[in-house]
Amino acid sequence: MKKKFVIIGAGLAGLTCANLLAEKDIDVTIIEKQKTIGGLAAGINENGFSMDIGPHYMVLPKDSVITEKIKNMLGEKNLLSFLDFANSHKAYFNNKVRRKFPTIKEFLNQKSRFFRINVFLEIFFLKIKLVFSKSEYKSGNEYLKKNYGKLLYENWFKYYYSNIFEEENLPKDFVMNQFPPIELKKRRRNIKGSQDNLKKSPFFDCYPRFGMNDLIKKLNEELTKNKVEIILDSNIESIERKDNEKIITYEKDDKKLQLVFDGIVFAVPPSKAINWLSNSTEKIKSNSNKTPVAYNAIITYLFVDQEKVFDGWIINLYDPKFLISRISQQNHLSKNIAPEGKSLLTIEIKCNPSDKIWKNTDDEIYNVVIKEIKKMDILNAEKIFGHRIIRIPRIYPKFNSIQVNDEKLVNLINSNENEYTFSHEYDSNNLISNDTDNNKQYRLGGMLIGISSAYNLVEQIIINLKK
Ligand SMILES: Cc1cc2nc3c(=O)[nH]c(=O)nc-3n(C[C@H](O)[C@H](O)[C@H](O)COP(=O)(O)OP(=O)(O)OC[C@H]3O[C@@H](n4cnc5c(N)ncnc54)[C@H](O)[C@@H]3O)c2cc1C
Q1: What CATH number is given to the structural domain containing 346?
Q2: pLDDT tens digits for 384-396?
Q3: Per the domain annotation, does 217 fall within a domain?
Q4: Are 444 and 356 found together in one domain?
Q5: Ligand 1 atom closest to Cα of residue 10
Q6: Ligand 1 geometric centre to CA of 40 (Å)
Q7: In terms of domains, do 404 and 286 share one?
Q8: Ligand 1 mean position to 414 CA, how many Å?
């Protein structure tokens, strides 16, 4: 008899997992609470164009089954590779859009001799102080101030990290690894920082020619071919475990329905999956709900009456005084995303749920965005002909929170026979992967994490089913 599995959640990870399981001759059903599939990689349709919710590019491994499969699905020529990645990523720092964020060395070279002398004097005295008193650091920020000095911290580090982290809460180990303590003799080398790591990456950056939603469409075609059933717009009420059966009760079209499966894959964040665990897990459930894990996102889409707004594709903002953290020109990637001669800017604001901006109305958010963009001097306001705003809670990971609790939850879910989840709740767009052989770090994308987790999980499921 064929095994029957249910996938809860139809994001990129869930869809990939469903297809792989179906290819292994497993009967697969997907249950999704939204009316459409794709999750964060779905497109928003606007006048016949499909805008991305968030993803702006995929990072794929150069030689891998995953990349081959995606190429086959889209058609090789429809996977656009970005060789000139560096030139497309701009940085807004010190009131200017620049080719890139300056390294410490470049930054110091731009400053006056007086400033440079002060920085070196401060580091020198800090170094002497550290010889006499061993320091314990509570945070990455404290470490940086006590090793690199307040001048460099206030004028460079604070800006450098403003694009990624909550300013007062830098993760200590990560920061110390990126910027090791300065040895005076090797000062020149250490102070350069570690920003050149991406150059020899075994990954490449790419994008589907017809928009990210094209990948979702192609996955959907595969699902139909593989006879995967998709139940959309439904709300799972409970999951009961009886002998080896998983009984799912869900609501659809105001009707209560039930389905029985041999196995479950939770392709939703673990914090959601715990809602369907048994009562014995109350303690973990209540602990995990208290942990702050991620920032919220406010995405503003601006429609602009202009072919191109700026040179390049993405501007990362390195300025803690700005609420905007990233601006991208989606039409730079695919012509199918905005009408000819027009542009679509996607503007991201990263915030805490308690921040004022999160509670603002759409009009208030629009005004903040316009004010900041005007300050950046990249857009003539008269050229804007429309906007749209969406809010996504808990999406950008907080580095400090990739924590034990999540691991506990994943282990707990996986300890139920034939139940699995991905631990990707916090692995969004700033995840760093270590290549220990070459001692390099690469920045991966949330999509690759989702897809590769699905491949690994399916391999594990098949091994377990054969036992
Ligand atoms: C602004 C932004 C920019 C980004 N930029 C990039 C980028 O440049 N590159 C990159 O690689 N990644 C990027 N990402 C991240 C990437 O979009 C995600 O990591 C990836 O799409 C996540 O896929 P997933 O399947 O793991 O999760 P999701 O897409 O979140 O899928 C989870 C699915 O589960 C469903 N679900 C939730 N609860 C339930 C429930 N109770 N019952 C049933 N279904 C449920 C959801 O509706 C959703 O469809 C970005 C994300 C954002 C928001």
Answers
A1: 3.90.660.20
A2: 999 999 998 877 7
A3: yes
A4: no
A5: 49
A6: 4
A7: yes
A8: 21
Residue 59 CA, closest ligand 1 atom number? 11
- Residue ID of nearest Cα to ligand 1 atom 48: 39
Number of domains in the chain: 3
Compute the distance between CA of residue 414 and CA of residue 281 in angstroms, rounded to an integer.
13
Distance 318 CA to ligand 1 centre (A): 25
Do 309 and 362 sit in the same domain of this protein?
yes
Task: Quick: pLDDT tens for 446-456.
Answer: 788 889 889 98
Range of the domain at 384: 294-397
Say whether 428 sits in a helix, a strand or coil. coil
Q: Which of 234, 447, 455 has most ligand 1 atoms within 8 Å of its beta carbon, as the pocket-test mutant?
A: 447
CA distance 39 to 446: 12
User: Is there a domain that residue 384 lies in?
Assistant: yes
Can you point out the beta strands (E) in 147-271?
A: 203-208, 229-231, 235-242, 245-252, 255-261, 263-266
Residue nearest to atom 27 of ligand 1 (CA): 11
- Predicted TM-score (pTM) above 0.90: no
Classified as helix, coil or strand, 217 is: helix
Q: Identify the residue whose C-alpha is closest to ligand 1 atom 14.
A: 55
Ligand 1 atom nearest to 12, measured from its CA: 25
Residues 406 and 386 both lie in one domain:
no
- Atom number in ligand 1 closest to CA 450: 26
Residue 63 belongs to a domain: no
**Listed residue (17, 381, 446) closest to 222, CA to CA:** 17
